[in-house]
User: Fold this.
Amino acid sequence: MSNKKAKEYWSKNLRYLAILLSIWFVVSYVCGILLVDQLNTIRLGGFKLGFWFAQQGSIYVFVVLIFVYVNWMNKLDKEYGFDEE
Amino acid sequence: MSVQTWTWILVGITFTLYFGIAIWARAGSTKEFYIAGGGVSPLANGMATAADWMSAASFISMAGIISFSGYDGSVYLMGWTGGYVLLALLLAPYLRKFGKFTVPDFIGDRYYSNTARTVAVFCALIVSFTYVAGQMRGVGIVFSQFLQVQIHWGVIIGMCVVLFFAFLGGMKGITYTQVAQYCVLIFAFMVPAIFISIKMTGNPVPQLGMGGTLENGNYLLDTLDELHTKLGFNEYTSGSKSKWDVFAITCALMVGTAGLPHVIVRFFTVAKVRDARKSAGYALFLIAILYTTAPAIAVFSRTNLIETVSEKPYSEIPEWFSNWENTGLIAWTDKNNDGKIQYVAGNALDGKKPIFTDERGAHGQRIIENGSMKTANELYVDRDIMVLANPEIADLPNWVIALVAAGGLAAALSTAAGLLLVISTSVSRDLVKMQLRPNISEKSELRVARGSIVVAVLIAGIFGIYPPGFVAAVVALAFGLAAASFFPAIILGIFDKRMNREGAIAGMVVGITLMLFYMIRYKTGLIGVMDPRPASEWWFGTSPEGFGTVAMVVNFVVSMVVSRMTPPPPQYVQDIVENIRIPSGAGDAVDH
Assistant:
């Protein structure tokens, strides 16, 4: 495998990680903890929004994040010929 | 049929199933023993990971703790699920590509040093023991409840059962048993939740019912907030912990999840890197089913508990109350002699646990000697019983109550078995095989592995009988330890090519020492010598549960600084790092 290809693959991988982990940080630490009081003034049905993020919303987003990552990485592997088939 | 009969039937059926699987999937080779032969499908692996992961703490204690702490309980929900994102994105694929059996294996090879390996083994042992102690306690609580025996007998029975599984099956048996245990525990958790949700809010989905309305049209959460305010508790949906502490605890739990040896080892059991990624996704999805239901159960049971007991005469209280009183997990002192239960804010006791006398009071209640006269609160409820008592409190059919006992056992046993396996692997492989006696035969290695399981179960059992605190609180500390020791060494080993032996060892030693020091100083005390220091002396207001975050940052900093002052790792190690970043060519997890 060429070194350049591997480097390029790795830097794309790192970019994906940066995007996904930013979302991870925002839904949990920002919405669920740091800004929880502000968000609690907004209602989502019977929930206060900040409370909802802390006890429900962030978890749903986490699940989606991993599947998006799996999808992106499988595509990337194919693109660079690093897939295992 | 009575609850007791139902419990015997359901526990009997599920245990027969587990035993059958354990015998069918008996391990013959070390490879089968350690990593199930390395060809488990991603979905099966996801289910096994989820069962391994969802322990007695998740199943029994978590909803209870949330129920009593409201918003503050969110740290467990976000912490124990968010860590999977880190695991899936930052660790699982690379560790799978690296292809060894254990975390100390990775650390030893990546940092070309047996010292690093030894440090990692000791960290793994400390983390796993802290964790398994909490599990044994959980097993004890469930057994004691359904067999109506004292808690220490419950722990001892649990020890025997765990021993049987881990001893016989190794990783292969455990993996397939855990698949079955996942199904049992999730079913057992969801059925009562759905029942109660329909009963209280008319919505069959507990996650939605939690935000739904009661019969009178008021929102459930608003009603609970009002009840709390009326009785002098903090509003349920707002917290009492400082923002920084919530942040620190959540972070320690997330990072700790990603650094737990018994979870990481799961990703060595699949065939390919892409399977490792997918498997983490399945695992989190399966875990999320329980984790989004738990806060709903917390709200339902909290509301039910208050409405059932508050200002009610003891003589009219339902039977479950006195059953739990008999096991010592509920206590009531009639402070104002009105025969009614006043349940308001404040600790009902002097000290943490009720001390019972043999006498009965005027209303038939058990008399305790340490009722506190400083508060008006008359009721002590152990937080660990909320999930187990919940179906009774909500007056659900007997078979549902029995189902919960079977589910709790599945949860506690699957995790305990997985942990004990990690402990025995650490001893037999990372210590004996890799260091003490490299040319040991496969047969003797298996013998050592099984022997160390026996020792591990005994030690874990002693911890379970004399626990250092609530189940989940003990477990929470294991996460701090994992966060403070492994996580930085693994992450830097993958993402920082320049990281070397000196940096990693220094970081791990400093991280775990600092965490242990803080934990002993502010949480457990030194048994018989020193009591824990009060919360007012915490550094920057960080609780021991959240301190893993601080220790982890210190670990990172120490590693970076030391590594830049010492020579870079040899070329072949840098090539290894290049290699694990590329998914193709993973092959089997190789034996040396």
Q: What stands out?
A: The domain at 3-96+103-304+395-477 of chain B is CATH 1.20.1730.10 (Sodium/glucose cotransporter).
